[in-house]
Amino acid sequence: MSGTSADGIDAVAADIWGGPSVRVKLLAHAHRPFPAALRRTILDAAVAGSVAELCRLNFVLGERFAQAAAAVIQAAKLRMSDVTAIGSHGQTFHHLPDGRPPSTLQLGEAAIIAQRTGIPTLADFRVADLAAGGQGAPLVPFADWVLFTDPLRPRIVQNIGGIANLTFLPAGGGLDQVLAFDTGPGNMVLDALVSELSGGRKQFDRNGRLAAQGKVSPELLAKMMAHPFLRRPPPKTTGREAFGPAFVQQVLSHARRRRLRQVDVIATATAFTVTSIGEAYRRVILPRLPRGRPANLQVILGGGGASNPTLRAMFQAQLGNAELLTHEDFGVPNQAKEALAFALLARQTWLGRPGNVPSATGARHAAILGKIALPPHFRPAGSAPAPPGFGPGAAGRFRAFRAIGGSTRG
Which of 39, 65, 116, 231 is least enclosed by beta carbons within 10 angstroms? Predict the structure, then answer.
């Protein structure tokens, strides 16, 4: 998957075993950035791509993901034959969970990955949850629950990628107690404003330097915070359809009328990201804590926003007494975490087990996610029609990788 920011592909190789208590060992991580021209093509096609262009990009991205798979397998000092399966989320081009009918589109042809690597490939994870009445997102909460649940302390796993989303893990809670949803834009609006205001010379606010030079405009921030998505109760997801080019142009128009400096616009957009997250905490999460206070709460920050010092300082100010941690504090590299999440989901599918969290997505029931593309000369074990290891009684040791977007910003 290349995340909403379409910065490139991250891949991990991992050993995953055990059940019901799942164990994970990260073997390697590899990042392959997209060339600037391909990134621009992806972003443009996600807004106004023709059917022919989307068809072509499906195969172009399939080749890129196959190359990422080969790179991380080599980095882990494995052979292709050592790997049980590949999990690939794909590049999201459109996500319409509230459409009639609800729909979603991720590209990056799994058959290409399976053909190039010779490894069974699981992909297209979101559609099964949509078919079960869910939002098709977020799908990372299963991995958050496996990796970060604590018996004594409540935790929020906060991702600030192109879109910002959270997973709330009650202390000692089961999977059915997990709550997760998108809080609003993460880096999406901020990156787009930097690109627009710099005439395309800059793609993001490196180290938050521009925002640090500006002052937040209360009037512009209030206008941005008036977006109706922010007031909707979960389950909810969002994307470029709500916070893409049209929203960015509205922000720019308001900023010009106010004669705001460019650095003030960037500072306000940064504040918008963290304020919308903080508002979600106050509306939804704090009421679920004892006495409505965050004294014992830990927040685990990840995604591209974690590497922006200005954004991170603004975010810390929103947290009050809550403790701020990162994925690295738990031995999981920031860039590798979402890739690892889809390796976990791929294993669930391979074993015939559900991977969605209905309390997070709003699905009517748990669902086995994804579709399987088989490589040449693949033969199921015995006479069973399914791949070897597929099904509830399958062995639990599994090596997988997932290619995702984001790099340091997505």
Answer: 231
Say if residue 252's pLDDT is above 60: yes
What string of DSSP letters covers 151-206? SSS-EEEEEESSEEEEEEE-TT--GGG-EEEEEEESSHHHHHHHHHHTTTS-SS-G
Q: Which two tokens stand for residue 25?
A: 């060992």
Mean pLDDT score, 58-82: 96
CA-to-CA distance for 371 and 390, rounded, in angstroms? 12
- Identity of the residue numbered 1: M
Predicted model pTM: 0.86
Buried-state track 299-318, b at ≥16 Cβ within 10 A, e below 16: bbbbbbbbbbebbbebbeeb
- pLDDT tens sequence across 141-185: 999 999 999 999 999 999 998 899 999 999 999 999 999 999 999
**82: which residues sit within 8 A by CB, 6+ positions away?**
73, 399
pLDDT in tens, 101-115: 999 999 999 999 999
- With b for 16 or more beta-carbon neighbours within 10 A and e for fewer, the 136-147 pattern comes to bbbbbbbbbbbb
